[in-house]
Design goal:
This protein is of the alpha+beta class. The chain has 2 domains: 186 residues, no CATH class; 43 residues. It contains 6 helices and 9 strands, in the order αββαββαββββαβαα. Strands 1-2-5-6-7-9 form a 6-stranded antiparallel β-sheet. Strands 4-3-8 form a 3-stranded antiparallel β-sheet. The longest helix has 66 residues. The chain is globular and about 65 Å long. The two termini are 51 Å apart.
């Protein structure tokens, strides 16, 4: 009995030690924001240290929400048209990853996370859009800063991943790009294409890109100094110029009106497309559930 008690005590000690060791070694995440299904968390960055031999991230990072908004606005996605459920996806052309409302919500949250992260962490996000037609799957991924690059990895996107809560499919393939690819890390084309094993990722030289945007904004807002000069007496030809340019002004106004009407038509068509996508998604969900009902009723009868 004494020997048996000793063995049980040793086994219990080893079990406690093993559990304690696993808890110590297991990576931990810390939630910095959660509202409904939207979660922003600090998580271990798998590309830092270990077998990757990468240096740590330059965290905490004081990247402002306004700066992140400009970066998110430049990110593009191309959905794979050859996968199942392609009927509810758009054509295989690059389009913005986020719309303006999604950027306005997500940028401040990512900025908050980057200010709290340490060099071994990245900011993970799971974000559900409130835009009609984009609520059947979340945005999910991670952001980190490793100067001079901001690293953006995307795991799921509502334009590529349609989710039936009862039968979720595997993640879809998609590619990422940036509005001005000259600011992407050289040689990172394979990262941007992604695969089932490694989801697509962008590495953006964000300081240089933001600096170029600021320079462009400064040039557009710089007032042109006017120098007083003696005006020559108007000649017959100069007085006739306004009358000659009047038809051109009318043409410009007419073109502007046509462009405005076309823009309104495009917005209306886009809304109709979104509604159609949502209806198709709901119909597929209803069909999947109806297929499962006979199997469930048959099992109950048995």
């Amino acid at each position: 009995m004494l020997l048996r008690g000793s063995l049980i005590g040793i086994a219990g000690f080893l079990l406690i030690a093993t559990v304690t060791n696993c808890a110590t070694l297991a990576p931990s995440s810390r939630v910095v924001y959660q509202q409904g299904r939207t979660v922003i968390q600090l998580e271990p960055d798998p590309s830092v240290g270990g077998m990757s031999k990468q240096e740590g991230n330059t965290h905490p990072s004081a990247t402002a929400a306004s700066q992140l908004a400009k970066l998110l606005d430049g990110m593009l996605i191309q959905h794979d048209p050859g996968l199942a459920m392609s009927v509810i996806r758009r054509s295989a052309t690059f389009e913005p990853v986020f719309n303006s409302d999604e950027i306005a919500t997500l940028a401040p949250l990512l900025s908050r996370g980057l200010k709290q992260a340490d060099p071994s962490q990245r900011v993970g996000f799971t974000f559900w859009s409130s835009t009609p037609g984009r609520g059947y799957a979340p945005f999910s991924g991670a952001v980190s800063v490793r100067d001079p690059y901001l690293i953006f990895a995307l795991k799921t996107h509502p334009g590529s991943d349609w989710r039936d809560p009862e039968n979720p499919p595997p993640p879809s393939l998609f590619a990422l790009d940036f509005r001005q690819d000259s600011y992407l890390k050289p040689g990172s084309e394979e990262e941007r294409r992604g695969s089932y094993k490694a989801r697509p990722m962008l590495q953006i030289d964000y300081r240089r890109y933001l600096s170029a945007l600021q320079d462009q904004s400064d040039q557009n807002t710089t007032p042109v100094a006017s120098t007083p000069a003696a005006m020559p007496a108007p000649s017959a030809s100069s007085t006739a110029a306004p009358r000659a340019s009047q038809p051109d002004l009318q043409t410009i106004n007419e073109l502007q009106r046509q462009v405005k009407e076309l823009t309104q038509d495009l917005i209306r068509l886009r809304h109709e497309l979104v509604e159609t996508e949502q209806l198709l998604a709901d119909k597929v969900l209803e069909l999947n559930r109806s297929k499962n009902k006979p199997a469930e009723s048959g099992s109950n009868q048995k």
